Structures are given as C-alpha cells and as structure tokens.
Amino acid sequence: MKIEIWSDIMCPFCYIGKRRLEKALDQFDHSDDIALEWKSYQLNPDMKTDADANINEYLAQTKGWSVAHAQQMNQRVTDMAAAEGLEYNMDEAVVANSFQAHTLIQYAKSQSLGDEAEEALFEAYFIKSRNIDDTETLLDIAVQVGLDPDESHKALSSDTYAEAVKADIQEARNMRVRGVPFFLLNKKYSISGAQDTDIFLQALNKVWKEWNEQQDTVELSEQSDAACDVDGNC
Question: What CATH number has the domain spanning 2-229?
Fold first, then answer.
C-alpha cells in the first residue's frame, strides 16, 4: 500500500506530521507493507534566499505582522514540535528558497533514499539552522544519507529532477491541494495537516482493510488539521 506525502522543507507542520505518521506506523501491524513517497511542494516559490536575514523580521515584513507576533508564532510551532521529540530552532532558521532541496529529494527518490533525504533536510532546516539553498550544504546532506556526491552535484543542475519537482507541484494543484502536509493513502483517502497519531492510525487501518479486500471503490475522505497553506499562513 502506498502513501504519497506532499510537503515543503520549510513547513514546520510537515516535519511534525512526518513524526506523527511514523508513530502511527510503529503501531500499525502491516507497516512493512507500506511504501512512502515524498512529493515536492513549495509554499513560497518566489522566496529569495538571504542567509543574513532574520527569520522573525522576514516573516513580519512579508506577512504584515509585528516581530513579536512572528516570534510568538514560531514559539507555538516549536512547542508543538517538542511534543513530538523535535527540537526546533525557529529563531535561527535561514531564509532560503526550497527548490534546490526538492531537487535533491527527487534524485534521492530515484536511489530509494527519499525518506532519508526528507528527514535530513528537515533536520538541517529546523534543528541545525542550515541553508538548504546552498550547494555545499546540500552535497553534505547527500553524502550523509548515502548518495554519491558527484551524481548528486549533477542532479542539482539536472532538468530531469527539476522537472520532477514541478510535476509534483502541478499534480497537487490538479488535486486542488491548498496546504501541506498532505497525505494521500492508496490514492483513495486524504489527510490534510499534521493530524494526531491516532487519526493516522485509524486511516491506515481503514485503507489497509479496504485495499486488502480489493474493493473497487472507496469514498474519498479528508481530515484537516495544522498545516501551512499557499497564502503563507501556518
């Protein structure tokens, strides 16, 4: 059974959602029969990388918030992440466009290392405060997850993997996905947002039963929760 996950490296709820799904899979009897595929999505494709910018000031300027409000919002997601065992350093996050990071993920997927690359990039952005639009940083992450550095370097400038990023984004638009994380289980059941672990587990059991019974049609259901949308709201 397949789970497709649209996410952006810069989306704080996407990393939280990843952890909650993993916890659900740990409790799921058939987790060995689940294939995960990470799909690319950009919340802010026009973002300009500025490693010297302060993330709270950037958010205040782009969203019309006060710096204090930006800090409060970042603290809220930091607290949510902490509950899942993730130590976010949101105040130190680097303002960076995520397209190149997605290109690396697409190459990693071709080498059956998509999940490892997704995890490493989330960690780099949210915990280690690294610039995910920096080539040397991405190559370091590539080696970390077991990718060949030379081939990874070629991939970062490859039209093939860049087009794969764009194709994932277009697929999401075609399905009218308006925010991430977005989970599609066996192309029949969608979960929007970083749902609680119990919701993921219920969905896994439901779709597994229906898939295992090889039913022809299953009503598409959707659950919504914490997410980032295309208007930049988190």
Answer: 3.40.30.10
